[in-house]
Amino acid sequence: MNPTYEGSIELLRDFWESRSVSFEKDYGIRQKGIVKLANETAKLIDGKLVLELGCGPGIVASFYPRDADVVGLDFSSSMLKRAKKRIRKLVLGDSLSLPFCNETFKVVTSFFMASDYASKENILSEAFRVLETRGVFLYADYSPNDEHWKLKREIGPTLGESCDIHIEGDRELSEKLKHVGLSVQRS
């Protein structure tokens, strides 16, 4: 039985440490969407210094343009070990307290990681802090209508599993982004 995340950052880290191999294997179900996302954001990333929050095994970054200078950050050392083959610059760190100076990056991405946190405000404010003036913050996460998560919420409890994923709608997320100082260009 897989461990489940119960709320603390330490348990969340332990959860992902134990799932790095299975996560990478199972991520194939999302590859079509990831490739589409990477293609849609390529112009914004190409040639820029990019911080990828919660880079995991580096799957999303593997689809970025070659000229992007990517720094992958994750709190899971096992995820970072798997990311070595895809991202040259890796940092063991926490998205809630980024180990970078203010206004360091032209682009900060948060793709499919913030849903692990019930409260996203600190992640968003830290992203804003390390983003250069006129920089770009790219955010993508699961939809409240995502069939995978709907199913997991329905059958997980019968299997003795919890579904600790915190998904928000566009309006709620837009308000949080604006609250930390980011302007929403497209949703």
Counting helices, strands and paired strands, the structural category is alpha/beta
Beta-strand content estimate: 15-25%
Helix content: 25-40%
Largest sheet: 5 strands, parallel
Number of strands: 5
Low-confidence stretches: 1-6
Principal-axis shape equals globular
How many helices?
6
Radius of gyration computed on alpha carbons: 16 Å
Order of helices and strands: HHEEHEEHEHH
What does this structure look like?
- Residues 1-6 have low confidence and may be disordered.
- Helix 1 (9-26) runs parallel beside helix 3.
- It is built from six helices and five strands.
- It is α/β, with parallel strands linked by helices and 187 residues long.
Task: Itemize the secondary structure elements and their pairings.
Elements: H1 9-26, H2 31-45, E1 49-53, E2 69-74, H3 77-83, E3 89-92, E4 105-111, H4 121-130, E5 131-140, H5 147-155, H6 170-179
Parallel strand pairs: 1-2, 1-4, 2-3, 4-5
